[in-house]
Specification:
The model is unreliable at about 1-35 and about 205-215 (pLDDT under 50). The protein has helices at about 5-10, 10-15, 25, 210; strands at about 40-50, 60, 70-80, 85-90, 95-105, 150, 155-160, 175-180, 195-200. By secondary structure, the chain is mainly beta. The chain is globular. The chain folds into 2 domains: about 1-40, no CATH class; about 40-210, Superoxide dismutase, copper/zinc binding domain (Immunoglobulin-like, Sandwich), CATH 2.60.40. Copper (II) ion binds near residues 103, 117, 176 and 193. InterPro entries: SOD-like_Cu/Zn_dom_sf (IPR036423), SOD_Cu_Zn_dom (IPR001424).
Length: about 220
């Protein structure tokens, strides 16, 4: 069976799709919320931001910009050859623009510990304390950028679609909100978006003891 043809035909099948639980791959159906054909819904992480307490998975570091009680939901969908990430937020400052990305590490009390941006092709020049700022790597085709502007109610959404899939051995572990949008593209500043305002850790939390030694 030609899966690609089947999946591309998915929108035509939507009208007849009665079960959202049916496997898209098996039936050619996608959930109506998945406008692009071929993407199979994957992990969804959601949280309500609060100031750090031990074990927090949704932490705000700046309660003026990301008030306590603001929410975020990040969902990942993958196709045979691509990935789509969607972020949906509420409770933010109406009309404010935010930068946002997927980062490599879980959130902690220290905003910096969420690590650098997740990259499909890892910048060989980057390392601890030296984030990638080379536009060849720090760009929205190689990283997941989810910048948005909150609407009049303080809600916002953003979607990033890529032609690559996540590396399961080193998946992104956090969604980080920044103080400004990711508009810098020059050498040495590409991908930067200012201070980290808030952080949502992917569910479930990673188990580092199992991951240790894999590099
Ligand atoms: Cu970031």
């Amino acid at each position: 069976m030609n899966l690609r043809v089947l999946l591309l035909a998915a929108p035509l099948a939507l009208a007849a799709c009665t079960s959202a639980l049916a496997s898209p791959a098996a039936t050619g159906m996608t959930k109506t919320s998945d406008t692009a054909p071929g993407f199979i819904p994957g992990p969804v992480t959601s949280g309500t931001f609060k100031t750090w307490v031990e074990g927090s998975t949704a932490v705000t570091y700046d309660t003026a910009a990301v008030p306590v009680g603001a929410t975020a939901e990040v969902s990942v969908a993958e196709s045979k050859s691509g990935a789509r990430v969607t972020a949906a937020l509420t409770g933010l400052v109406p009309g404010r623009a935010y930068g946002a990305h997927l980062h490599t590490n879980p959130c902690t009390a220290n905003p910096a510990e969420a690590g650098p941006h997740y990259q499909n092709r890892i910048d060989p020049a980057a390392g601890p304390g030296k984030p990638s700022a080379d536009p060849e790597y720090a760009n929205p085709e190689n990283e997941i950028w989810l910048d948005f502007t909150a609407d009049a109610e303080g809600a916002g959404t953003a979607t990033s679609v890529q032609k690559w899939r996540f590396d399961e051995k080193r998946p992104p572990w956090s969604f980080v909100l920044h103080e400004r949008t990711t508009t810098h593209t020059g050498h040495g500043e590409a991908g930067t978006a200012g201070a980290r305002l808030a952080c949502l850790t992917r569910d479930p939390m990673p188990v580092y003891t199992e991951r240790a030694g894999r590099g």
